[in-house]
Design brief:
The structure is a homodimer of 338-residue chains. Chain A contains twelve helices and 14 strands. Chain A has helices at residues 12-19, 23-31, 38-50, 57-64, 82-95, 109-121, 166-179, 195-210, 225-236, 251-263, 281-286, 298-313; strands at residues 69-74, 99-104, 126-130, 136-137, 147-150, 153-154, 160-164, 184-189, 214-220, 245-248, 273-277, 292-295, 321-325, 328-330. The first copy, chain A, has three domains: 12-55, Orthogonal Bundle (434 Repressor (Amino-terminal Domain)), CATH 1.10.260; 69-164 and 298-329, Response regulator (Rossmann fold); 166-296, Rossmann fold, CATH 3.40.50. Helices cover 42% and strands 19% of the residues of chain A. The longest helix of chain A is centred in the middle third of the chain and has 16 residues, at 195-210. Chains A, B: This is Transcriptional regulator, LacI family.
Amino acid sequence: MASTRNDSAVTVRDVAQLAGVSPGTVSKALNGQGQLREETRQRVQEAAEKLRFRPNQVARSLAEGRTYTVGMLTSDSFGRFTLPLMEGIEDSLGAGKVSTLLCDGRGDPLRERHYLAELLNRRVDGIVVTGRRPDERRSVGQLPIPVVYVLGRSDDPEDLTVTNDDEQGARLAVEHLVAHGRTRLAYVSGPAHHLSTQLRRQGFEAAAAAAGMTVSDLLTGHWSEAWGRTAAGLLARRTSGLVDGVVCGSDQIARGLTDGLREAGVRVPQDVSVVGFDNWDVMVQAARPPLTTVDPKLVRLGRLSASRLLAAIDGAELGRGVVAQPCELVIRESSVPT
Amino acid sequence: MASTRNDSAVTVRDVAQLAGVSPGTVSKALNGQGQLREETRQRVQEAAEKLRFRPNQVARSLAEGRTYTVGMLTSDSFGRFTLPLMEGIEDSLGAGKVSTLLCDGRGDPLRERHYLAELLNRRVDGIVVTGRRPDERRSVGQLPIPVVYVLGRSDDPEDLTVTNDDEQGARLAVEHLVAHGRTRLAYVSGPAHHLSTQLRRQGFEAAAAAAGMTVSDLLTGHWSEAWGRTAAGLLARRTSGLVDGVVCGSDQIARGLTDGLREAGVRVPQDVSVVGFDNWDVMVQAARPPLTTVDPKLVRLGRLSASRLLAAIDGAELGRGVVAQPCELVIRESSVPT
């Protein structure tokens, strides 16, 4: 690998010389602008190909006032939830020939401010701000370019947030349990103050009420397997009759719960159906049995947020408020009694 | 959020007018070039601050022939191993005020070639190529800018690869087991054709031989918990005496093995000590007991590769071949018999 800079890069002048035209004609021919004879345009293109001429994107940016670059500001380090979002964002941007400048704010306001200034200096065309939980985050404020928040919501109602519909996701889980004859339902989730815990609980309660089901327990704790195991112990020791369907706030909780129930002699799904949330491959596959779960479709979320941003860069109205996308239920062995 | 482009951005001309100097003087004052009276320099700076003037990074790039941008090409989608590498790469680049352009090659050669052309068009100063496993990958070839491979090795010995020392990592694990009186050792890892499986086995065998220990089993299978549980069954059914120490090729395998042993009535760590590989928080914490493991220090790896790249961009010799960085052992409950 040569570690020296290439100072002999091919320039417009070289192409012009080979094609026997002026540098201005080369620009016109390659940018498809101005009036040129087809024969001239072709001669320039052949010369450019022969010399492997790469038009200087930097110079083009300066001329067009647009850099075909979007900043991605992750507010919370590169969490597990960030990966699929990034994949989706890159899908959309790549298709639009737009590159992504990566900035990891790590939840540090100073660091974030530094990055924002840097992105503006670099004249990005827009910014995607990703969070790893649906909880609110501070708006980055009014900027001269469009900004889309994805997953984590902006606290400014004038901003646009694209996120998943946690309430609807929990409703799907309850409707699935009810469809399989489950009647005594419990909800086991993460910290009570997290927005995702609250929204999913609302969906859980609404769907249970609509189906006329008994809600036996609403337990909140941590986003961990250990908490799932603890909750399993609490549910298994109930004297007033065992629940027969549990909706969990995450796959980690669902996995711990499943392990805990099995070890307490309760069979999943024969005695109790369990549904997780996230569709996190590592958890849902390793659980015994594999987990039915609610998929927040994060790749799709990333893709959608980036295309909204691209449209806004091209002049469309960005929109405002929270756009909540539907989740999907993925059915595996943990929920269907046999 | 305003979704319109800001066409009234402050220019050098505005700053010049407010400070009562020529645009050329503004440039000199803000870039610290040329000879200017201190009083003039200060007046320009005050005007720039008052108008919130941001020097145009794009124009600066064109003038300097350097974009302060590095491309990061992930060869294998955004895997779990990519996250800590990215964090480290961003650490180094951020400190050097260099931004990261993100390209997800997804293991597709066509996609990768497209991205490489794009990165060169955008005149990046260098490229980091990340892989998620130490296995070899095709070199991106000779480019006019420096390229560093991290984790995944380039197949061209002229390229520079920064990766972790898998052999040394496995040696650490064996030495730890031996120090705690374990004498009958087994190695349980992923697919036999993976370089990481091979290198770790070499380290395992070398350290076991050096300590005069019996190697009872060398098992290769999959990078999964299910394989770990299967391997536990194989080891527990041994008639020729149980192993008392197992080095696993990953934390997932170690976790499955630990579950499988416990369910077969074998106590970890009282009867058998288990050591994992990766220090993947989700696995090591949820395992019962929590896992002792070999940490490949991926953040440090990312940081090191990026600083080597920055040095090369600044003119230092890039170097070549494979630079293998030491792993560290993290001790938890799964390995120390009480």
